[in-house]
Design brief:
Layout (H helix, E strand, L loop, with lengths): L1 E23 L2 E8 L3 E10 L2 E21 L2 E8 L4 E8 L6 E6 L7 E8 L4 E8 L4 E8 L5 E6 L12 E8 L4 E8 L3 E9 L6 E3 L5 E5 L5 H4 L6 E7 L6 E8 L5 E9 L4 E7 L12 E8 L6 E8 L4 E9 L2 E9 L6 E8 L4 E7 L2 E11 L2 H6 L5
Antiparallel strand pairs: 1-2, 1-27, 2-3, 3-4, 4-5, 5-6, 6-7, 8-9, 9-10, 10-11, 12-13, 13-14, 14-15, 14-16, 17-18, 18-19, 19-20, 21-22, 22-23, 23-24, 25-26, 26-27
């Protein structure tokens, strides 16, 4: 039997639009919109079982932020104060005791929202976003040694037919061999997966399956509560150890307002997808419940083990651990914070054998390090946070 345990915690001031990544086995970097509506990065480091705060750095006014790490260089992709995509590179010192701004992309990209980053290799990455026309756009970038950016190819070259239509949510993941998968809420409000082949020099981004692969409706269940009605969508990826086939995991708020995880096998270098597991197939008592502000990540316990974080219906943080095997999903365990914790956002990342979360708790940043471990049933019944 598995159990989710919180093993270290720290935090900071007012924050929203959270992103988090692990830098090393003891270093964590968060990026967010702070209480002054500016971009802020804060580092945390783990030492002697304690999570301590390191350096911080800030930039100008933003609307949202995505974060990726390339060695000791971090890249933030933000929606700037003028609503355009802006990339900024940062050099991160040892034990995150320094964070230094390097370069930015200037005016190399236009209007953007729903921004995601997918690293392609050690210095090339793709930004996937909703452009000023409301359509899905992928742009490939090269990160230079000095932190400067070179814009390479894009999915909608000028003078060519657009390769994808309107979207209102975007997630992206790299699955190897210069292949990037996007998961979007399309113009029909459905989940749609598209695979994209990035050329070795980044000059072209080609859609692999013209028809795409669609699943159920992404919910608008919380429209009256949060006012945007956009639902929720997150994605992660791994390689099936048995077959060597890449698999993507989508986590979304479905049309009933509940968390739904679907595992998809990526076939023929992205030419098609095969649905291999859906949490809606679990017995009724094991299906996840009401959820918003969803994130998903490998848990660190095993290669086929994944952790989802969310704001549950009561407004509190909940984490659920699932394992994926040939028979589908198994719900292993969950962790729910007490009522009244008021978690309004969650972000989750794999952290070198563990998982780390950034949450917006009563408007403030809360960073927690989690461990998934096997315990006896008697210990699980009395363990902190077990349910």
């Amino acid at each position: 039997m598995l159990q989710i345990t919180s093993i270290a915690e720290n935090g900071a001031g007012e924050a929203s639009h959270l992103a988090i990544q692990g830098l090393s086995s003891s270093e964590i970097l968060t990026a967010m919109k702070n209480g002054s509506n500016n971009l802020e990065l804060i580092g945390f480091y783990l030492k002697d079982g304690m999570l301590s705060r390191g350096a911080s750095a800030s930039a100008g006014n933003i609307g949202e932020v995505a974060l990726a790490v390339f060695g000791r260089t971090a890249v933030t992709a933000v929606r700037s104060g003028s609503n355009d995509l802006l990339l900024i590179s940062w050099s991160v010192g040892s034990d995150v005791q320094s964070i230094k701004r390097l370069k930015d992309s200037g005016h190399a990209a236009g209007e953007a929202s729903c921004i995601a980053i997918a690293p392609v290799n050690k210095n090339m990455f793709v930004t996937a976003l909703r452009d000023g026309s409301g359509d899905l756009l992928l742009i490939c970038w090269d990160l230079q040694a000095d932190g400067s950016f070179t814009r390479l190819g894009q999915s909608n070259p000028p003078g060519h037919r657009r390769q994808a239509g309107s979207v209102s949510l975007v997630a992206a993941a790299s699955v190897g061999n210069n292949l990037v998968v996007t998961a979007v809420k399309n113009g029909s409000n459905d989940l749609e997966l598209i695979a994209w082949q990035v050329s070795s020099d980044g000059s072209t981004i080609t859609r692999k399956d013209p028809a795409g692969t669609s699943a159920g409706t992404i919910g608008t269940f919380f429209e009256n509560i949060f006012g945007d009605g956009t639902g929720e969508l997150a994605m992660t990826a791994y390689v099936d150890p048995a077959s060597g086939t890449p698999v993507v995991i989508t986590a979304m708020q479905n049309s009933s307002g509940n968390l739904q995880l679907i595992a998809w096998r990526v076939l023929d270098q992205g030419a098609s997808f095969e649905m291999v597991a859906d949490t809606n197939a679990l017995p009724a008592g094991e299906r996840p419940g009401t959820a918003s502000h969803i994130s998903v990540s490998p848990s660190g316990y095993a290669q086929n083990n994944f952790l989802a974080s969310m704001r549950r219906g009561s407004g509190d943080l909940e984490l659920i651990d699932f394992s994926l095997n040939s028979s589908g999903w198994t719900r292993e365990c969950s962790y729910g914070q007490r009522q009244g914790t008021d978690v309004t956002e969650t972000a989750l990342a794999s952290f070198f054998g563990r998982a780390v979360s950034a949450t917006r708790k009563a408007d403030f940043l809360n960073v927690l390090l989690w461990q998934i471990e096997a315990v006896s049933q008697s210990v699980a019944r009395i363990g902190s946070g077990a349910s």
